């Protein structure tokens, strides 16, 4: 029963659940990108190139014969997959670029305190006299 308890603790950690959610969303995003490439981007490119359907571009290495399927290289599907990857990689790049831009720390704000040169106490930055030792402070 100890193994089941350990597995439950492992599987319910925040980072494992976050990873699972990321994989599920990534899979759905991959389907969207595949549809974008196959259904939206490739038809106009195929039309421009003379009514070429990239999904059907193949090179036959061995023709179909009795009981044996044809052996083909489906380079059109490979082209679609490369475009899928390129679009996903670009989308992830843009997402991470925006996240990094938002993560940049704000410039440090002006100090709200300063140190008294006489007694070394921390005092408000705008103070003209130290409340601890009563010495006069000169504007810096």
Task: Describe this structure as you would to a colleague.
The protein has two domains: 2-103, Non-ribosomal Peptide Synthetase Peptidyl Carrier Protein, Chain A; 108-140, no CATH class. It is 53% helix and 9% strand. The chain is built from three helices and four strands. The strands form two sheets. A two-stranded antiparallel ribbon has the order 1-2. The termini are far apart.
| C-alpha-based Rg, rounded | 32 Å
CATH homologous superfamily name of the largest domain?
Large-conductance mechanosensitive channel, MscL, domain 1
Q: What is the class of the largest domain in the CATH system?
A: Mainly Alpha
Q: What would the CATH topology of the largest domain be?
A: Non-ribosomal Peptide Synthetase Peptidyl Carrier Protein, Chain A
Uncertain segments: none
Task: Furnish the topology, listing elements before pairings.
Blueprint: H1 2-11, H2 14-48, E1 59-62, E2 71-73, H3 75-103, E3 113-115, E4 122-124
Antiparallel strand pairs: 1-2, 3-4
Helix pairs in contact: 2-3
Essential attributes:
140 residues, mainly alpha, Non-ribosomal Peptide Synthetase Peptidyl Carrier Protein, Chain A, two-stranded antiparallel sheet, two-stranded antiparallel ribbon, 4 strands, 9% strand, elongated
Short description, anyone?
By secondary structure, the chain is mainly alpha-helical.
């Amino acid at each position: 029963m100890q193994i089941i308890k350990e597995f439950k603790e492992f599987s319910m950690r925040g980072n494992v659940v976050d990873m699972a959610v990321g994989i599920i969303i990534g899979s759905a995003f991959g389907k969207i990108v595949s549809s974008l490439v196959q259904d939206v981007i490739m038809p106009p490119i195929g039309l421009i190139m003379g009514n070429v359907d990239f999904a059907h571009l193949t090179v036959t290495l061995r023709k179909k014969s009795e009981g044996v399927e044809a052996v083909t290289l489906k380079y059109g599907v490979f082209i679609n997959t490369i475009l899928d990857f390129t679009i996903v990689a670009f989308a992830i790049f843009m997402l991470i670029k925006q996240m990094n831009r938002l993560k940049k720390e704000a410039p440090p704000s002006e100090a709200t305190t300063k140190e008294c040169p006489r007694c070394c106490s921390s005092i408000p930055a705008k103070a003209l006299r130290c409340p601890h030792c009563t010495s006069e402070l000169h504007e810096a």
